[in-house]
Amino acid sequence: xxxxLIRIGTSAFTAAGWEGSFxxxxxxxxxxxxxxxxxFDTVEVDSTFYRTPSLSTVxxxxxxxxxxxxxxxxxPQIVTHEKVLVDCDEDLMEFLKVMSILGEKLGPLxxxxxxxxxxxxxxxxxxxxxxxxxLKKLPAGYKFAVEIRNKSWLAxxxxxxxxxxxxxxxxxxxxWMPQPRQWFEKVNPITADFTYVRWLGDRKGIExxxxxxxKVIVDRQRELxxxxxxxxxxxxxxxxxxxxxxxxxxxxxxxxxxxxxxxWNATSEQKLPSFDEQAGMSNQTAxxxxxxxxx
Length: 295
Description:
Order of helices and strands: EHEHEHHEHEHEEEHHEHHHH
Radius of gyration: 19 Å
Number of domains: 1
Largest sheet: 5 strands, parallel
Shape: globular
CATH architecture: Alpha-Beta Barrel
Strand order of the largest sheet: 2-3-4-5-6
Number of helices: 12
């Protein structure tokens, strides 16, 4: 498939256990993003959730990645979790100003909301009463996506609110949320001119088994096969797709991406490059540099 229509990466480009499993042993930290960008054409930056990055940090991201690379990033939690969209205009504008340094490399910006109990919002209508005025104030020229973790809120009125502002409804694969096909059964979840997908998994469950992210410990072939089926239909509509794998999904997000690529290529006429093909190296060279990656 034309890479302009589908980009797949990981959530964050560093993790405990990646040295020797994804990154070559001994690779300096300052060279990791450049190495990552040889094998993926996009990354979801997780660190921005905690605070707006410095200008120098964002300039460094730009300098270490090639033209055409795309950064997705989480909007800081002060907007989504602490202030929950109230009196946070300055916080958001500061974030946008800094991230705009990336220019054409700036991709979707994610409003990742937590699960809200009844004390926070009585229901989806109550939440929309706050969300809709906020969306109306969003500046043009950016790709915005919204992630909710209350599955009962996945209703036409929620999708319509996002669609009216061209904001993407984030499709997530998480333990208590609907499975891929179910996202399309009750509502049309495509609400913007792009689609945002996050493979999240069961954080608590997998952390009972490991906190070192260097190998697959949960078999996700069935779920990823279903995602291939769903996303092929989206791609046929010529809607760009940005998809990101979290380590908590299967245990080792680079391998999750590679599994998706293989499953996609098994059914689609238009192929996604493998890890080795994207890097422009042979399988033997990749194994020599990165150890037992994906074996």
